[in-house]
Amino acid sequence: MKYISLITWTDQGIQAAKDSPKRLDQAREMGQGFGVKIEEAFMTMGDVDMVCIVDAPDDESYARFGLRLCQNGAVRTRTLKAFSEDEYRRIMNGL
């Protein structure tokens, strides 16, 4: 299953922005324990500081990963469940 994670740095996270690449590496490593893979990560400008494309086996695994990720206090996340083009076409064909 694919997810798009919209990440914002907390006050604590922005104070340690220089450490953000190290935190991303740690998040990737931690994700393995949940069966979660951060496939792509982008730093963005605007209301969101980073966007990640994530693969997880199911919603529960991703939820556990996301909650654990936020426990360090450096980030907050908003998650969008994403459908592949094939899934999108099947959904639309079912209307």
From TrEMBL:
Q: Which Pfam families does the record associate with it?
A: GYD
Q: Which domain of life is it from?
A: Bacteria
> What is the name of the protein in this document?
GYD family protein
This chain's source organism reads Alsobacter soli
